């Protein structure tokens, strides 16, 4: 072009070759007034044409004659090209197009290539296609991401190409709107477009859109789009929170439409008392006619009001046709707004979930200091709370809640033992005993700290011990005096008394809290207030969260209530957690002191251990330790200790692990000392179980299946497996809710035996595993724990099916960890009930002991609990003992010994002994034997 002289012919020639240039140039460069004039002319032409010719408005452009032909060609091409655009446009193409080089085409673009056609045509594409380019599948997630990132910038509104609009049939327009609704989640863009279209189609000067806001009980309208004209851009029309007009339901024309859900069509608004002339006065615009319509959602609720103003043509009155057309288009607004609201809800929900996650993380990061925790939660939540000021008030005794003794015991008991297990020098325990630790010097709280007797009934009797106020990113803690005088604190006190959330729209108007002014010393004026009680885990109120002045000046709504509720729950949780931690630390300190004292008294003296360590102990054969019919009944207590030491020596454990011999002796003495003198579950039982294990390993030839650590742990487990047994069973502990049952929920006693075993190992001079490297130490403790817990018959019943399947499938090696664990568990049971395999004389005597202990428990149940014991423990059923023994053998003993007999022939004596005793009990049960004389008769 630059080389060509600009003559009229040259320009005409160029325009002929580039039929779209003129229109696109107009759109790009013409000022608003020129466009408006042109548009109006176009419209009138279209209407007259429409009236005279066809139902479809043929698009006519005031083009020079010469161009007429070209234009018609273009119109024919249009639908096809348009549809191809819908599918083919890509983001990249658009960005090229966006450079604006169309107005200064280069020579290569002067050709009528389809490419340049596409590009030029693209100038007319509306934003709906822009959104299509992104691709349906990802648009929601993309917009979602944008919302979350806080990018609320709107797409530049594309100036309406009026010609394009004119050319479109109503159907086409509808189709396009449907596409827009499917992809457009920004309700402003969609509604702006609809209002523009409606204005043009109804020949009205401008339109506005109001959306419904507020809570269910207090709804009002806010202006969203105002004065949308044919040429106004979205940016010009949109109202934000800063300039929005608020119209209560029932006030003015829009307010009445919203309230009555019916359209209002007025020709002369100044004659109508509902019309508010204020806006006209402000803007200088003169309103004559108005058509105002409700926008309904699919449930028929009003979600907005749209209106068009000043009909330009005819007698300047909106007709029935205008109403119908407007209504039709508003259906799309309704769908679009509903979509957008649903979308906003899901964005809010997502944000709330994120907040919750964040708060949850915070709670566990910060549990040592309550004040820090509350401050952290407040700062984390400030963006979401959307208020000018946020306060958290804590009640006087929220720092000292009632201690749940069970919780703490469960927690500390296990924790302390584990602590001792895995770190032999507990820094925490040391710190807890440090007299400079202020927590230790607090008043005694070993008993339950009394919470308020009853909740306060008057705000005046509510005392806050502490408050935090978040204002402009800073947290401050008001003094006691400030709290006493603060009107806000008073409102919070009322929330405590009411125990319910409190949402005040406008303090001054509300009147419940005085006339005001609600302005504090710093000049801060409070208007809207939202209060929510904070509860602890027992649903007792421990504080109040308070939000003041919603940022946009509106009342707090349902969404705010949801967020403050989540915030309050987490504050409550955090406080609870902190308090638990503090009390746990206190109790741990106390317990570790107590434990220290106890373990001093519970361990055998150094002198006693020394005595055994210095003497020569008899051999295993002297004690018959390798035999299945080993009998301890005639042994002295000291000999049981010597025999135990002998087994550990002969198992080569003391050598292998370089155990100081004195430590070994002392540990055995201490273990013995920690068995109570109960009738059956005493030291002798433990000693026998350990001997059976020794025999199963060596005589029974199971030893090669295990390494030295396993053998050591198994034998130690046997010796410790009933430590501190009280002569009553698990069911009894649960029944009387003994402290042990509080401490452990399953395998109550077994857990205690294990923990007691750990306590002994942690006592000075008693750790037989002391020379183990850490890894081996942990492993030994794990095996020990597994073995001791396995003596719970409830677990035996669970596992023995697997064991049976394994053995019957021919498994003999038990190399895999899982299989070996199963084998160990079964060995523990086999050893624990091995009295049933002993020669009849021993068996009968031991059965008497077991029965005696059972009867003792039964007696307590009868006398102290007033309950009827199970037959096994009922003294009155003692004649049924033989029958019960047969049952015991059949259900528990025989199944396990039979399997061991299969595994290894040398283990068969266990099964034989058991079978032989069964016969005896059977005979007694059927009355064929004369009870006491049986053994004499059989010569045993
Ligand atoms: Zn036992």
UniProtKB/TrEMBL annotation:
Residues 605-928 form the PDEase domain. Keywords: cGMP, Hydrolase, Metal-binding. Residues 440-455 have a biased composition (Basic and acidic residues). The keyword Transit peptide does not apply. Binds 2 divalent metal cations per subunit. Site 1 may preferentially bind zinc ions, while site 2 has a preference for magnesium and/or manganese ions. InterPro entries: GAF (IPR003018), GAF-like_dom_sf (IPR029016), HD/PDEase_dom (IPR003607), PDEase (IPR023088), PDEase_catalytic_dom (IPR002073), PDEase_catalytic_dom_sf (IPR036971), PDEase_CS (IPR023174). Its EC number is 3.1.4.-. It is an enzyme of class 3 (hydrolase). Residues 51-122, 432-458 are annotated as: Disordered. It holds the Pfam family PDEase_I. Coiled coil: none annotated. The keyword Hydrolase applies. Its cofactor is a divalent metal cation. Residues 63-81 have a biased composition (Low complexity). Residues 82-93 have a biased composition (Polar residues). It comes from the Eukaryota. Belongs to the cyclic nucleotide phosphodiesterase family. This is Phosphodiesterase. It comes from Aplysia californica. The lineage of its organism: Eukaryota, Metazoa, Spiralia, Lophotrochozoa, Mollusca.
């Amino acid at each position: 072009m630059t080389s060509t002289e600009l003559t009229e012919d040259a320009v005409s020639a160029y325009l002929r070759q580039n039929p779209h240039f003129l229109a696109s140039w107009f759109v790009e460069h013409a000022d608003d007034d020129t466009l408006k004039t042109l548009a109006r002319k176009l419209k009138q032409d279209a209407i007259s044409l429409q009236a005279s010719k066809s139902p479809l408005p043929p698009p006519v452009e005031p083009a020079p004659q010469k161009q007429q032909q070209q234009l018609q060609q273009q119109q024919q091409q249009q639908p096809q090209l348009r549809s191809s655009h819908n599918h083919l446009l890509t983001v990249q193409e658009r960005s090229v197009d966006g450079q604006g080089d169309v107005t200064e085409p280069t020579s290569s673009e002067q050709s009528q290539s389809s490419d340049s056609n596409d590009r030029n045509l693209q100038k007319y594409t509306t934003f709906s296609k822009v959104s299509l380019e992104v691709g349906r599948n990802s648009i929601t997630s993309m917009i979602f991401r944008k919302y979350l990132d806080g990018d609320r910038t709107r797409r530049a509104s594309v100036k309406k190409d009026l010609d394009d609009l004119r050319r479109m049939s109503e159907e086409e327009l509808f189709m396009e709107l449907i596409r827009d609704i499917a992809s457009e989640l920004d309700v402003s863009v969609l509604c702006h477009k609809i209002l523009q279209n409606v204005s043009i189609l109804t020949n009205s000067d401008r339109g506005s859109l109001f959306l419904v806001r507020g809570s269910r009980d207090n709804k009002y309208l806010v202006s969203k789009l105002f004065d949308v004209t044919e040429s106004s851009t979205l940016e010009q029309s949109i109202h934000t929170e800063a300039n929005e007009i608020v119209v209560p339901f029932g006030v003015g024309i829009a307010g009445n439409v919203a309230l009555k859900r019916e359209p209002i069509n007025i020709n002369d608004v100044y004659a109508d008392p509902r019309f508010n002339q204020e806006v006209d006065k402000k803007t200088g615009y003169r309103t004559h006619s108005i058509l105002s319509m409700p926008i309904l959602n699919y449930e028929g609720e009003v979600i907005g009001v749209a209106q068009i103003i000043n009909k330009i043509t005819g007698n300047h009155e909106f007709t029935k046709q205008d109403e119908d057309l407007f209504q039709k288009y508003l259906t799309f607004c309704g769908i679009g707004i509903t979509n957008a609201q649903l979308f906003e809800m899901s964005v809010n929900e997502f944000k709330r979930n994120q907040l919750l996650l964040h708060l949850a993380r915070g709670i566990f990061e910060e549990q040592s200091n309550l004040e820090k925790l509350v401050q952290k939660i407040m700062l984390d939540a400030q963006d979401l709370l959307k208020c000018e000021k946020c306060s958290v008030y804590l009640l006087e005794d929220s720092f000292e809640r009632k201690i749940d003794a069970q919780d703490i015991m469960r927690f500390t008991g296990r924790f302390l033992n584990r602590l001792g297990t895995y770190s032999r020098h507990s820094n925490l325990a040391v710190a807890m005993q440090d007299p400079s630790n202020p927590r230790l010097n607090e008043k005694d709280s070993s008993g339950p700290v009394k919470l308020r007797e009853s909740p306060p009934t008057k705000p005046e009797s509510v005392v806050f011990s502490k408050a935090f106020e978040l204002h402009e990113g800073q947290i401050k803690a008001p003094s006691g005096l400030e709290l006493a005088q603060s009107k806000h604190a008073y409102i919070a006190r009322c929330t405590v008394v009411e125990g319910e959330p409190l949402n005040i729209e406008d303090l001054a108007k509300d009147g419940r809290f005085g006339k005001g002014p609600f302005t504090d010393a710093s000049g801060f004026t409070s208007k809207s207030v939202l209060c929510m009680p904070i509860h602890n885990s027992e649903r007792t109120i421990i504080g109040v969260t308070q939000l003041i002045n919603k940022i946009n000046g509106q009342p707090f709504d349902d969404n705010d209530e949801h967020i403050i509720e989540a915030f309050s729950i987490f504050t409550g949780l955090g406080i609870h957690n902190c308090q638990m931690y503090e009390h746990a630390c206190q109790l741990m300190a106390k317990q570790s002191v107590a434990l220290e004292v106890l373990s001093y008294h519970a361990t055998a003296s150094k002198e006693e251990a020394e005595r055994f360590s210095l003497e020569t102990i008899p051999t295993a054969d002297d004690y018959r330790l390798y035999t299945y019919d080993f009998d301890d009944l005639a042994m002295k207590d000291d000999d049981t200790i010597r025999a135990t030491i002998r087994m550990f020596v002969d198992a080569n454990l003391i050598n292998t692990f370089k155990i100081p011999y004195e430590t070994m002796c002392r540990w055995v003495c201490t273990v013995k000392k920690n068995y109570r003198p109960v009738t059956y579950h005493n030291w002798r039982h433990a000693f026998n179980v350990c001997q059976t294990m020794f025999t199963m390993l060596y005589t029974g030839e199971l030893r090669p299946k295990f390494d030295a650590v396993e053998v050591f742990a198994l034998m130690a487990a046997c010796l410790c497996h009933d430590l501190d047994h009280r002569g009553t069973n698990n069911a009894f502990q649960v029944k009387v809710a003994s402290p042990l049952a509080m401490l452990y929920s399953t395998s109550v006693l077994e857990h205690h035996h294990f923990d007691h075993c750990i306590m002994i190992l942690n006592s000075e001079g008693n750790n037989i595993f002391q020379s183990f490297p850490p890894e081996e130490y942990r492993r030994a403790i794990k095996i020990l724990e597994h073995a001791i817990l396995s003596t719970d018959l409830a677990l035996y019943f669970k596992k023995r099916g697997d064991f049976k399947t394994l053995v019957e499938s021919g498994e003999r090696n038990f190399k895999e960890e899982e299989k070996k664990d199963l084998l160990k568990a079964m060995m523990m049971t086999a050893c624990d009930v091995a009295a049933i395999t002993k020669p009849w004389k021993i068996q009968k005597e031991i059965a008497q002991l077991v029965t005696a202990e059972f009867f003792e428990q039964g007696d307590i149940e009868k006398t102290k609990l007033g309950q009827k014991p199970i037959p096994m423990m009922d003294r009155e059923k003692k004649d049924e003992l033989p029958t019960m023994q047969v049952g015991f053998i059949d259900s528990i003993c025989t199944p396990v010994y039979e399997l061991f007999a299969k595994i290894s022939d040398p283990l068969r004596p266990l099964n034989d002994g058991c079978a032989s005793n069964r016969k005896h009990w059977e005979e007694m049960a059927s009355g064929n034997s004369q009870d006491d004389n049986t053994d004499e008769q059989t010569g045993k």
